[in-house]
Amino acid sequence: MKVWLAWISIGLLHLEMNAQPAFPKLPKYAASALKEDAIILKKVLEANHPSLYWYTPKTELDRAFDQLLQQITDSLTEIEFRNKIAPWVTLIKCGHTSTSYSKSFIKNLQQHRYPRFPIQIKFWEDSAVVLSNGYFKDTNLVRGTILHTINGQPMATYRDRLFQQIATDGYANNHQYQVLSSTFPDAYKQVFGLDSSYLIGYTNQVGKTDTVSVGNFAPIPRDTGANRPWPAPSRTNLSQRQLRLMAIRSLSIDTVTKSAYMRLTTFSKGHLKTFFRRSFKKMKEAQIQSFILDLRENGGGRVNNSIALTKYLKQTPFKIADSVVAISRKLKHGRYIQSSWMYWLAMNFGASKAADGTIHYKRYENHFYEPNAALAFKGSVYIIQGGYTFSAATMVAGALKGQSNIAIVGEESGGGYYGNSAIFIPNITLPNTKLRVRLPLYKMVIDQNRPKGRGIIPDVIIPPSSYAIRTGFDPKMAAIQQMINQQLSNQKR
Predict the structure, then answer these.
(1) What is residue 210's predicted lDDT score, i.e. its pLDDT?
(2) Is residue 106 part of a domain?
């Protein structure tokens, strides 16, 4: 009887679904306009996407697209339309081909952000664990608590549905896990809407399984002076510019263990070439023997910056890729492509046409880059990577993998080990909804002898754990520190 009462309660809870409007006052677009946007998107991708059928056959993509059009039977908001378009785009299995909202929606995003699902969740494989709870005084769903269900549905149901919204390279789905872990409250709201409350099934820290009901979360207005779930900003003598740079790149040196730790969150900005030169000079002067390069948060950026870093660590000459190919110089649907004239110029004056009509970026295919002889680091190198390690960051780790003094530690990278589609990546802007889809123009096969479809597999695999999340323990750094200590111990013998 108690089991039936529980299921009745869950059923009643589902009857209240969307009791609160998730996104009030959003305009709707007629079905005809939505179908026009979808058809234009398909035409642009077919004309210029270099790896449209790299992982998914044309027949399968076409069939899925026909089903997409059949699903558009009534007017939809921009969010509802994206929820239908994104799964089709994700089928391409290109991490650089992703959907995003219109500029006007992004501009006004803050007014739509709350209320929302209250819990930030870390996902991996079949696990889901609380990262943070908007209701910080809640003693049930604290950091590290294992979650099983939301409203009677297993966590895998939400994971699999939301994975359809997240583009990734081939089958390297660790990127999807990482993105979902950082965006779950927003992603839940956008795809499932809002319930008035949520029945959460969980296992607490002493192993007891239970359920608890929680409501939507909205932060307390700042002018109330009430307690808030975020800490007050700490005082610092650093300038705003220094703080911004530290968020991008930082270096710390331990003279006792003769080790250095570099954290890089992007290759796009931060005066990185100057930073690299100064960092490796400091490391040489300090006679550093072990170097830790943390790329866990690095989603990529400028290839030239990734080359600059690789030069300090690679022991032999290297090139970027076996092939870097675009299918056409013509941007047939240029009126929908951001700054199409600029990309047309670059592809006409910076690339060469092959006999088969394809366009090749020859410098990356043929040029070998020499290691930095003056400041090359020759000690032990530990690269930390994870699902956010993508694009140019993956290129660095991939170029160094297998070198005798390199150990890659952590989880599978999000970016493809075999290759990716990138270099030039303008946005397609659809004419009616203004929804945007990224369009890579070159397909890059980094090394044709590598396995296709996955990310870089670490030399030392260290997955997440509920214990590490609960205690704030970093098992990847701990494993590296143990290896460094072992190396120091061996030297003393």
Answers:
(1) 96
(2) no
Q: What gap in Å lies between CA 188 and CA 72, rounded to an integer?
A: 21
Q: How many domains does the chain contain in total?
A: 2
Beta strand pairing status for 290-294 and 323-326?
unpaired
Range of the domain at 479: 240-492
CATH number at residue 457: 3.90.226.10
Please indicate, yes or no, whether residues 344 and 295 belong to a single structural domain of this protein: yes
Tell me which residues of the chain have a pLDDT lower than 50: 1-18, 223-233
261 and 391 belong to one structural domain: yes
pLDDT at 110: 81
Asked whether residue 323 is domain-assigned, the answer is: yes
Give me the phi and psi of 331, to 5 degrees please.
Answer: -105, 80
Q: What is the 3-state secondary structure (H, E, C) of 319-351?
A: CCCCEEEECCCCCCCHHHECCHHHHHHHHHHCC
Tokens 């319930």 sit at which residue?
A: 195
| Cis peptide preceding 115, ω within 30 of 0 | yes
Q: Is residue 370 part of a domain?
A: yes
Are 197 and 152 within one domain?
Answer: yes
What global pTM score does this model have?
Answer: 0.90
Residue 493 pLDDT:
73
Neighbours of 2 (CB within 10 A): 5
Can you give the pLDDT at residue 158?
97
Strand partners, 420: 444
Q: Residue 17 has what pLDDT?
A: 42
Same domain for 190 and 248?
no
Report the distance separating Cα 391 and Cα 467, nearest Å: 30
pLDDT of residue 232: 47
- Asked whether the beta carbons of 185 and 195 are under 8 A apart, the reply is no
Which of 90, 86, 118, 91 lies closest to 101 in space, CA to CA? 86
**302 domain residue, yes or no:** yes
92 and 99 Cβ atoms separated by less than 8 Å: no
How does strand 249-254 pair with strand 259-264? antiparallel
> Model confidence over 109-119: pLDDT tens digits?
888 889 999 99
Both 310 and 249 in a single domain?
Answer: yes
Asked if 447 contacts 113 with a C-beta cutoff of 8 angstroms, the reply is: no
